[in-house]
Specification:
By secondary structure, the protein is α+β, with helices and mostly antiparallel strands. The chain contains eight helices and eight strands, in the order ββαβαββαββαααβαα. The N and C termini lie far apart (64 Å). 22% of the residues are buried.
Amino acid sequence: GKKGGKKKVQDPFAKKELYAIKAPSFFAVRNAGKTIVNRTAGQKIASEGLKGRVFEFSLADLNGGDEAQGFRKIKLVAEDVQGYDVVTHFGGMDMTRDKLCSLIRKWQTLIEAHVDVRTTDGYVLRIFAIAFTKKQTNQAVKSTCYAQAGQVRNIRKKMFDILTEEATKCDLKELVQKFISTPDSIGQEIEKKCQSIFPLQNVFIRKVKVLKKPKFDLLKLMEVHGDSAEDTGAALDKIAAANTVKALKGAGGRL
């Protein structure tokens, strides 16, 4: 043939495989979706290419289509591959841009706080919270409700304390359940505790980043997925086993 002739066009999807993404047990929907990866070929193992992959889901999809939670984005990180299942764990949380923009208005003070916390099971998270001031019920005609710098500082300090307290006394599983609860339990706590300083509204956990993870432990991961990792095998009938060994004794002098 001629040099530099046309190469045979191969379909790149012909050498790909589908894997199912399994979400942790704190979400209502466990089969979160599918992901594709190149088949194992030579030194490149498919499961190695999947580990560490980050999948982003809307919380509404993970919790059975509750649209009120549609503004929360959940990141799940692939931790392990079992057969054609990708076992994931919580990898972070965010808020959609349109929801964030819908909260930001004129004539009010925006207060943000972030804090690094360590859970009881060794995860280090950075939690970002956001809050807005609101008009007092007995307020005069004035259209603004700005907090003074001192009040903002006090509110932020209170936010630090609440976030640290809520996060350090539980493990990651419990903490994620607090994040995804409706209404936002930590947000409500901040709103209630700061009422005496200045009334707040639209208090949310805006973002959560996972900064450090403990060493990978398959048993702990399977606990989060609500099923045991240990295969104990079938129950053994000792008498039947002894009889089998007796029967095998004359098999070519091996036993």
